[in-house]
């Protein structure tokens, strides 16, 4: 690789590293306790270097949110691409992704952050925009009350996984997923 | 009322007032931005007076959590008392309370806080304990997969109301509640 390549990529790598560290600290200590100083120290990046990417805490939270939504979108697109039935396809993909959260994917730690992020007032609005955009995009295939209900149940399971509020055995979990997928076709 | 009564009650009143202010500030600015100084100033209570009730930010968050759970428990007990059918009674009460969140009850503002609170690591553990205790308490009447699924859907609706992520019209909402109540009896 040329050094020009390195020069171009380096800032992106620092940015990713800062987000990884911010995610880890948020998970360990809660988002309320997260400070730019702590991220800068734990990442071994100067405060100036951090401020170049994230001028304040809100910008850092925005960055975490963007990354989470991008991962979620990619996972949904993959699941949709593997499903040949048009009716309820978005809902089944949504179910698949939400139910997969406990599978120990590398993204799991990150996803546990979602709950803290969407509690932040300005990120709530951004999540609302995502929901509205997707609802409009898939209105012809996924707007039935049963599809909506299935997605709400998926949100509940996702929430339970994130906060580890329930101990669900694998068979109960699989039965629930099948039942909800059937609703998407009703 | 005697002055002895006043002396006894005054600290409780200050505590409630501090919690109200902390809840309002958390909703306005997010829990991450909440500081003891801001609560003390907004409540017109000295920093010493605040520290007497809440020695640090975690204690303040614990206090908010206790209050929220107490309100949630009372609402569930009321709903259960009004339901004569034993099977799935806890689930129907849970559904009723979760779906009522958008009804503009005085507790609504407070409940919007729940999502921020359960994202805090040590409060997650407290919520998990609540779920486990209730699941054990109502194991004979409310442990079917359908009851569980109904409660997950209620969590999803509750989450949607809290973060205002979906615009649900009243008839869709009512139909969903009826469908989920029917599941609790299946």
UniProtKB/TrEMBL annotation, chains A, B:
Keywords: DNA-binding
Superkingdom classification of source: Bacteria
PROSITE patterns for this protein: HTH_TETR_2
Gene Ontology MF: a single term: transcription cis-regulatory region binding
Domain HTH tetR-type: 12-72
DNA-binding region: 35-54
Pfam family, one: TetR_N
InterPro entries: Homeodomain-like_sf, HTH-type_TetR-like_transc_reg, HTH_TetR, Tet_transcr_reg_TetR-rel_C_sf, TetR_CgmR_C
PANTHER family assigned: HTH-TYPE TRANSCRIPTIONAL REGULATOR RUTR (PTHR30055), TETR-FAMILY TRANSCRIPTIONAL REGULATOR (PTHR30055:SF148)
Protein's name in the database: TetR family transcriptional regulator
Organism annotation: Sinorhizobium saheli
């Amino acid at each position: 690789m040329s050094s020009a390549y390195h020069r171009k990529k380096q800032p992106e790598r620092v940015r990713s590293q800062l987000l990884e560290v911010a995610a880890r600290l948020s998970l360990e200590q809660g988002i309320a306790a997260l400070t730019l100083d702590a991220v800068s120290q734990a990442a071994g990046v100067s405060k100036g270097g951090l401020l170049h990417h994230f001028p304040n805490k809100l910008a850092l939270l925005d960055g975490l949110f963007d990354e989470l939504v991008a991962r979620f979108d990619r996972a949904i697109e993959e699941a949709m691409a593997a499903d040949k039935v048009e009716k309820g396809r978005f809902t089944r993909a949504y179910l698949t992704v939400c139910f997969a959260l406990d599978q120990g994917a590398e993204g799991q730690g990150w996803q546990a952050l979602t709950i803290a992020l969407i509690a932040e007032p300005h990120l709530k609005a951004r999540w609302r925009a995502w929901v509205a955009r997707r609802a409009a995009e898939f209105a012809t295939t996924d707007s039935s009350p049963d599809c909506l209900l299935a997605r709400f149940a998926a949100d509940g399971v996702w929430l339970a996984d994130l906060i580890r509020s329930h101990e669900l055995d694998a068979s109960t979990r699989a039965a629930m997923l099948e039942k909800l997928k059937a609703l998407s076709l009703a």
